């Protein structure tokens, strides 16, 4: 009886310890745009990299950059992944104290046009579509059109929302003649007969696009959670970039983005391109960010602050150190 009693007591203690361990799990709401850049997040969720660090991550897809920025500012989201210029806009225009904490990619954007557009000059007097007209990839579009001989004002700008929405719009509305799209949306558009007029980076040079962005106050209050999140993200990124995981990672793209196998395979090939794919370990592209700030200055007429004012890589560096 003493042995039974001891076992029962041990069971009670074990159950009691399990309650705070469960309760200690940290829940995060992470807001993202739909796209291939979410592949590391898919892996971190499906392979348990978040869970093993005590993180419960809810991924939400944003309809637009305006909604995403507002959600971060209001505390609805703890972390967002988006074009870093959106973070610059939050800091300089909305006066929200944010910081980019990890890089990601160059955006993979391509100028996609209707079949009747044969050159950039054909867009004179036509409608082009963007997410928000005053941030990020809209500036890429304006710059590509300028270098093709069109000044802003020689075309009409229509705000539609995130890339997935722009794809649907340009497929269904033939009067909307051009947009910046990235894979898999650019591939889907071309399969439907739209035309590719070239990549943004081939025209404007290196570009720091997707970045993880947080409120500085939240990061200061939750450094351990942020570091664990970044560890899991980097581990997910390493997993999907490992060639031996190609088939599984391609399936993650197909399932996560609802893609046919051929589009998923083509998208994975872009994601893993050694030169221009997802940045190794999510590294931050300094020269690419300088280009982001230059474009913002050119197209808003307002000089940004020094680049270092917009990011804090200390959490990222600790995450890398923790991974070994």
From TrEMBL:
Q: Which InterPro entries match?
A: Solute-binding_3/MltF_N, SsuA/THI5
- Record's subcellular location: Periplasm
Per the record, the domain of life is: Bacteria
Q: Where is the signal peptide?
A: 1-23
Q: Where is the Solute-binding protein family 3/N-terminal domain?
A: 27-243
Q: Which UniProt keywords apply?
A: Signal
Q: What protein family does this chain belong to?
A: Belongs to the bacterial solute-binding protein SsuA/TauA family.
UniProt name for this protein:
ABC transporter substrate-binding protein
Q: Which organism is it from?
A: Pseudonocardia alaniniphila
């Amino acid at each position: 009886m003493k042995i039974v009693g001891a076992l029962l007591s041990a069971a009670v203690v074990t159950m009691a310890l399990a309650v705070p361990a469960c309760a200690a799990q940290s829940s995060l709401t992470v807001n993202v745009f739909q796209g291939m850049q979410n592949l590391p997040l898919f892996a971190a969720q499906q392979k348990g990299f978040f869970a093993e660090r005590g993180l419960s991550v809810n991924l939400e897809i944003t309809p637009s950059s305006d909604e995403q920025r507002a959600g971060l500012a209001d505390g609805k989201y703890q972390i967002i992944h988006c074009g870093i210029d959106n973070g610059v806009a939050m800091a300089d225009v909305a006066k929200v104290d944010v910081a980019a904490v990890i890089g990601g990619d160059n955006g993979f954007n391509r100028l996609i046009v209707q079949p009747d557009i044969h050159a950039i000059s054909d867009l004179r007097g036509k409608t082009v579509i963007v997410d928000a007209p005053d941030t990020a990839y809209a500036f890429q579009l304006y710059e590509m059109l300028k270098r093709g001989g069109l000044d802003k004002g020689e075309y009409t700008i229509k705000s539609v929302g995130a890339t997935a929405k722009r794809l649907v719009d340009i497929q269904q509305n033939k009067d909307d003649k051009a947009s910046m799209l990235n894979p898999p949306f650019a591939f889907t558009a071309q399969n439907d007969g739209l035309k590719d007029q070239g990549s943004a980076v081939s025209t404007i040079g290196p570009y720091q696009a997707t970045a993880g962005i947080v409120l500085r106050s939240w990061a200061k209050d939750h450094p351990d959670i942020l570091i664990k999140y970044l560890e899991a993200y980097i581990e997910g990124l390493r997993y999907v970039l490992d060639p031996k995981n190609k088939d599984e990672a391609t399936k993650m793209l197909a399932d996560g983005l609802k893609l046919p196998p051929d589009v998923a395979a083509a998208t994975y090939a872009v994601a893993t391109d050694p030169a221009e794919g997802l940045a190794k370990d999510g590294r931050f592209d300094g020269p690419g960010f300088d280009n982001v700030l230059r474009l913002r200055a050119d197209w808003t007429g307002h000089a940004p602050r020094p680049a270092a004012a917009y990011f804090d890589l200390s959490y990222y560096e600790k995450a890398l150190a923790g991974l070994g």
